[in-house]
Design brief:
The chain is an alpha/beta fold. About 35% of the residues lie in helices and about 20% in strands. α3 links the parallel β3 and β4.
Amino acid sequence: MIPPLACSFRTSAPGAPIRVLVVDDSSAARAMIRAVLARHSDLVCVGEAADALQAREMIRGLDPDVVTLDMVMPGMDGMDFLERLMRLRPTPVVVVASATRQHQTNVLRATALGAVAFIEKPMPGVSGTFEAFEKHIVARLRDAVRARQTLRRGSAAGTVAVAAPSTSGRLIAIGASTGGTEATPRLLAGLSPAVPPVLIVQHMPVGFSARYAARLNGLGPLAVSEACDGEPLQTGHAYVAPGGQHLSVERGPAGGLVARVSAGELVQRHRPSVDVLFRSVARVAGDRAIGIMLTGMGGDGALAMRLLREAGAYNLAQDEATSAIFGMPREAIRAGACQEVLPLDAIGPRVMALLGLAAPTAPGTRLRPETAPADR
């Protein structure tokens, strides 16, 4: 069993290289990743493990900043190892695995369990795939270190206080599919606990959304949870649609906003559906809302986002260059639903500017009830 040492992380000196442990049963794959790391002065391979048992002992002894993890290994497979690692000794993990028929399910499951990213191994003999792999893995390893630093700050802060109830009627609504499990935490990291409630529909099967919400809750400045039917929406809180159920919003008896979770029929071939969320936000919040369309396949939510804009909302879409799949943003743009198309890392700061709020200065810090302002 991997010993829980969540409160005794080694703190790297400022400017020190990112220390990476490579876990893969393939010596060729380990050599490939090692070669990539050697080409970047801010990355260093501190060890290699061929299976989960070796990885367990090396994590214990080396306390790496990041682990790269294969999915198919002898003995305990990568998914089981990831689940145990994140439960007992939280460590940033970048999954590096070969593409399979279950690729999308594996991506969702790994990110729901806590992986920072899921990267496909390059195809042998296919021009340009190694270069794309190198660019992607280097960026994700650097992102992973930021995630770990946020986790440390959140742990040091002690208990998380309950946010103030939202009374302004303002809302932020986010739709995402393929690639969204990586994009959403980066977006949320650019927000502060002073923002109005954030509602998130991520296309995700039953059984993964609670863990995904828990992962988001540990990585960023907002309190994040899986949405519950009838739950009052709060300032500085984000709500993830449960897998297999629609998420919408309505006004409660006292005039505040509450989440609605329901089974219902598939909409745009999805449940949860971005369409359902955006239509409800258009009805309830109108010009008090900000709509955001992130990376994803298909066109779920595009026409509803147009209705949201017609109701007075200000809508943003992720650009093609930073999208894993540009389908959902493209369809929203074609529908005339978006006022702006932005790179992923520019969306959070733009939302803060639209709300008239200062950019967050201490990621991971959450407001206590007595100091949390009512959102604007």
